[in-house]
Amino acid sequence: MKKLILVIEDDLDIQESLVSALELENFDVATAKNGLEGLNYLKSTATKPDAILLDIMMPVMDGKVFRQKQLEVENLKSIPTIVLTADRSFEIPSHLGFFACFKKPVDLDVLLETLSKI
Amino acid sequence: MNPIGPFIQKSSYIRRLRATLTIIAIFFLIGIMSLFLSSHGFLRGLQDINTVNETLNLSTISIEGLSSADALLEKPGDKEISATFSQTVAIIENQINQALIKSKDLKEVQNSLHVALKSLHEYQNEAHAAFQTGNKENLVVAKEFSADTREALRRAQVKLNQESDYIFTSLFESRFRPLIVVTFLSILFFAFVVTVGLASTRQLSSAMSNLKSATDNVGKGNLEFVAPILRPDEFGTLTNDFNMMVKSLKSQRALTHLTLSRISTLQTITEAFSSSLISDDIVQIILNTVLPAFNADAGTMAFYLEDQSMFEVRRYVGYTDQPEKVQRISINTTYPAAVAIRKKEPLFAEGMDAIKENFSDVTPYYEKAGLKSLAAIPLMAGGEVLGVVIMSFRSEKVFDESERAFMIAAARQCSQALHRTKLYEKAKEAVQVRDEFLSIASHELRTPLTPLKLKLQTLARQIKKGNIHGGEQYLPVIDSLERQVKRLTDLIDDLLDVSRISAGKLTLKKEAFNIYEAMEEVISQYNTQLKNSHPVINFTGDTSLMGDFDKVRFEQVFINLLTNAAKYAPGKPVHISLDRRDDFAEIKVRDEGPGISEENQKRIFDRFERVKDRDNIGGLGLGLYISRQIVEAHGGKIYVESSSGEGSTFIVLMPLEIQA
């Protein structure tokens, strides 16, 4: 069965390239343009994704807030979440418990290897 | 306690001493005179006795003369006898006259002598008659007169004897008088000397001990001591002078204390300001430190808003009305701050009249709060007014020269601090703007690289999977494109890092980690990324070393060295070691490349420097510069050992002890 990945990313070029790369690697992909959209998607869908790829700097609701909200919901908090950020000085706040953190531009091989561990 | 001030000397110890000496001299004179007088009486007595005795002798001689005359009367008729008789009577008369002269002070004796003289004359007359007539009757009468004369003389003698006895008795009785006089005078003198001497000594000693205790007290530093003035004499003057001296000493000391306290206040203010870079802090310090230093009862801090011709009252203390929010007031008013801003000089009002005259707008507030004087000191920097400190006082304070100077000096400190905060705030703003720009630039430059890289890698994976027919021939092209993306990414990172370092914004986020494991992970990622072209990496070292570094930055340094080795010695093995050297972790990265000349070794850690004479090697030459900054920020060291043609060894020393 194909793994479902939720990509939360405001930049549509990045979003599209992630989607196409993952789909070609046999993943099902859902997308959201910001944290709020992602949260709504997670709350509305019955099939929870196997992993979330999360941007940090986004309008409406940024990645950190999204993660905090996600952790507040019992059946969402266990979904492994991987950060993809263009902010090189971004620190991983340990209490947010990210599965991994990659700086953009991300290496596809490394990303796929990480996803394979889920 | 006598008040210290002008002193009127009402008595004189020296005059008293002089008077005492005069009295002693008078005592002496009186003593001598009394001695003289008492001795004089005694001598007079002796003389009197002598006179009496002489008179007695004279009368005795007279009586004997009479006896001789009587005998001559027995032989009458002879002229010779008559002449002798006359001579004898003349002698007797002479004797009696002498006795009269001698006894002129003794009335009874005189009377008797006069009677005797009279009887003698009668006797002489009768005797002459008897001699001439030979009449017996005359003879008898003459003899009777002779007897009368003798009788009178005897009476005189009795009186004289009585007088002599009397004189002698009185002399005898008064024989101790001089002694008594002398003794009495001596006792009186002694009593006087003892009384006056004791009193004077007591005064002297009490005055001395009074002064001594005063000097002792003052000597021990008790300048509050005021010596009591015991008597209004020279010692009183001396004590008063002493008190005046102490008073002036005290005021001198107070002045010194005041000066010292002012210096220390200025120091406190300066110190307080030195750590403040926010204007609100400055306001706080001015109100909390500067106002109390001048014992101001109330104070205001106003900022001048030059572009609006307004001043802004940030904070009040001590007034009855407290501002609910920041007030902005035009500088074309007569508030002290407004006037001080316009005049650009310190203003002082030493009473309600002066306030009403110069600062009428503020008068009602002062009347309400019971404030009666003020100082408004503009805070200036470079001829421009930054703000005004206003200090208000409940008393009608007189601002003397030194106080004004002190206020202006304190205001200068405030001005400098305020000026500094303005500069700091501007600088901070600029840094913030730049940091924001850097952050956005970083984000925006990296964003388009992300889909580019993802697309290239997706394409490469599909070709490798054989999903794209005949795509293999494009793999090297894709690989090259991917390398360019990586270069572009590194360049962006380096530029941003250099900007951060030059702005002093390189902050370290230290954490404890195992150095060996971190290096191993980097090597493994490095191998994954470089894929086919990766060199042989030999890594040996101490697996137990723990570092307390910024892990990301440490890895950055290591990756940079690794990249350099691969770049300058392509296809050749890289030797990496990790060891403990004293308190440092020593990381060595050795390549087998062409080596670096001594001249180049010095330059390569500088900004925008690369090993010269190497063609076809890309990069801005920032990697080693950034690495050096990171290592030095950790308190470590980075250097290279190399000689041309024999490869290079880059050595990094990172302190294992947590840096203070």
Order of helices and strands of chain A: EHEHEHEEH
Overall pLDDT of chain A, averaged?
A: 88
Instruction: Using a beta-carbon cutoff below 8 angstroms, give the protein chain pair with the largest interface and the number of residues from each chain.
Output: A-B, 25 and 27 residues
End-to-end gap of chain B: 64 Å
Assembly level: heterodimer
Total count of helical runs of at least 4 residues of chain B: 16
Fraction of residues in H or I helices of chain A: 25-40%
Alpha-beta classification of chain B: alpha+beta
Instruction: Find the count of extended strands of chain B (DSSP E, 2+ residues).
Output: 13
What is the topology, as strand order, of the major beta sheet of chain A? Answer: 2-1-3-4-5
The first-to-last residue Cα distance of chain A is 14 Å
Largest beta sheet of chain B, briefly? 6 strands, antiparallel
* Main beta-sheet annotation of chain A: 5 strands, parallel
State the shape of chain B.
rod-shaped
Per the principal axes of the C-alpha atoms, what is the gross shape of chain A? globular
Q: Tell me the radius of gyration of chain A.
A: 13 Å
User: Rounded to an integer, what's the Rg of chain B over CA atoms?
Assistant: 69 Å
H/E series of chain B: HHHHHHHEEEHEHHEEHHEHEEHEEHHEE
